[in-house]
Amino acid sequence: MRILVVEDDPLLLDGLTAGLGLASFTVDAVSTCEDAYAALEANEYRAVVLDLMLPDGSGLDILASLRKRQNTTPVVLLTARDQIEDRIAGLDAGADDYVGKPFDLDELAARVRAAARRGAGLACAILEWNGVVMDTAQQTVAKDGLSVSVTRREFGVLRKLLEHPGSTVSKAALEDALYGWQEEVESNAVEVHVHNLRNKLGSSFIKTVRGLGYRLSEECR
Amino acid sequence: MTSIRSRLLTILIASTGLIWLFAVAWIYISTQAEVERVLDARLTEAARMVNSLLAERKVEMALATDTAGDAPVQFQFGDASYERQLSCQIWSLDGKLIGRSEHAPSGQLTQSESGFSQSVINGETWRVYSIENASLGVRVMVGDSIAVRDRLVGDVVKGLAIPAILILPFLAGAIWISVRRGMRPLNDMATALSSRAANDLQPLPQQSLPDEIVPAVHALNGLFQRVQEAREREKNFTTFAAHELKTPLAGLKTQAQVALASQDGDVHENALRQIAAGVDRTSRLVRQLLDLSSVEASDRAPNASSIRIADIVRRIAADMPSENARISIGGDLEASQSTDAVLLTLAIRNLIENALLHSQGTVQVGIAQDAHHLRVSVEDDGPGISEDELPRVTERFFRGRSKSPTGSGLGLAIVKEAASRLDGRLIFENRLPSGLRATLELPASPSR
């Protein structure tokens, strides 16, 4: 799940990139408003973690401009200013959640997941299709009640597909969701992940739609 | 006396009383003179009247009887109460009493031949006017008793003084009420102020105030505003300080959690390194916060002693653990200044630290001194500060676009605060092709 983290403190930004990466997010990290605008313009994110006090402006400005453009990407505010009135101002400006510094990394990850889930119109952390159950909070996958071990990337591909059951997801969209800016994407990376998933979940679970991408198969095994 | 009201009351009542006494004295003296004049005129009038009556032979019988016998004639001299106070005697020029009015003493009223005179008869003082009638060979004397005169003057003055004395308390009351009413705006202000909560720094209303109080209210409102601003600054400072401390704390915690959760050796090691660097940075931030608050809070007068500037710079340079930048000192190495060593050291140290944070290689410290100023300039070869950010660089926690990763945004704020405590100023100029020159300019010490 690709997210954007906007934070000007290098220590915290580094920690967030590493920590949220461990929680299987794909993290794009920026430290100024200017870079944040550019990143939001160029990419589709599942969620944004936004610090309020940035060297060249306020995170609230980014939030406001995002909402003004009808962009509904879930935003989790991350700030040391966590008085009640600050929280209210942040939430009223269009934020989906508010986390005060210092915070627990796992809690932040859970809140980002929850915000992203709500943003995708999903009610709970469990995604299910044809006997395959994915718990996005626990990051586990099970088939017919038996746990299946998947890698972080495979998890990402499966999740993206499970979130859009019945519709075709393009290869580019999958790559986008899996890889941040700095990461080199092998041209056949997505094919490899899909191949591995088919091995683990059954060859007919994911269908290739030629020229368009992939989708979950309608038919039972 | 500290109460304006009692002072006003005292002054007003005392001065009114004095003026009142003066007025009473004046009335007394002028009334007395007037009464004397009127009574003297009456004496003259009466004497002339008797004389003219004698001349017209209206008292012939008396003169006739006088020749017949010895007993002097007694006659009624009018019957008005005023005139009863008068006594009249008619003496022949050869010294015989021809006639006298009722109650007139039997002794001669005066030895004086004509005009006014004063004489004592039977212990009583008389004022007498005598007139000589040579053709009849008589002398007419009319007199009145001084005691009676004094009683008359006393009655007149009493008639004036009693109402005036009765008026006095009313006068005092009127003064008291006027002063009270006049002081009401002050009282209102005092009530308004004393009923305020300690943190209520709203300005006092300025409408419909007497001109005299307006300056005080202005001054008070100005003070309120300054206190309010100071409190606001303090509050902002605390909030910002908390923000600045919470962020590295959040970073430290996150890195610690990453280190705990990660199996990957590189990630693990990087997190621990970040934690170490973060602790250093946070310590520096805490030190700078303490520096800033100590510079700010010191309301003591700067503790002046004569110091050589180059020594300070050398000491700071020696403390600086800088691997990639060198500090060189140039200019007037003998320059010394009588100033507060602690504040000056703080200022120069933070300037040098700031320069080192942005410098690529060398930081040049220049010392210059002339008759009026001591200048310490610190030059770096970093990116400089863009013109639009220059006015803001001394704001607390302001970190510009070309910030260093470890700066706190407090260093230049400390320098500015210290400079203003030393009556100096801080000047920033961008250098060509790149870099920043920060100059601390202090007024020359008088003892130089």
UniProtKB/TrEMBL annotation, chain A:
GO cellular component: cytosol; protein-DNA complex
Response regulatory domain residues: 2-116
Domain of life: Bacteria
Domain OmpR/PhoB-type: 124-218
Keyword Cytoplasm attached: yes
Sites of 4-aspartylphosphate modification: 51
Gene Ontology MF terms: phosphorelay response regulator activity; transcription cis-regulatory region binding
Keyword Protein biosynthesis attached: no
Biological process terms in GO annotation: regulation of DNA-templated transcription
Subcellular location: Cytoplasm
Protein name, per record: DNA-binding response regulator, OmpR family, contains REC and winged-helix (WHTH) domain
Species annotation: Aquamicrobium aerolatum DSM 21857
Native organism taxonomy: Bacteria, Pseudomonadati, Pseudomonadota, Alphaproteobacteria, Hyphomicrobiales
From TrEMBL, chain B:
Subcellular location: Membrane
EC number, as in UniProt: 2.7.13.3
Membrane topology of the entry: Multi-pass membrane protein
GO molecular function: ATP binding; phosphorelay sensor kinase activity
Bilayer-spanning residue ranges: 7-29, 160-179
The HAMP domain, residue ranges: 180-232
Cellular component terms (Gene Ontology): plasma membrane
Keyword Transmembrane: yes
PANTHER family: SENSOR HISTIDINE KINASE YKOH (PTHR45436), SENSOR PROTEIN QSEC (PTHR45436:SF14)
Protein name stated in the entry: histidine kinase
The species this protein was found in: Aquamicrobium aerolatum DSM 21857
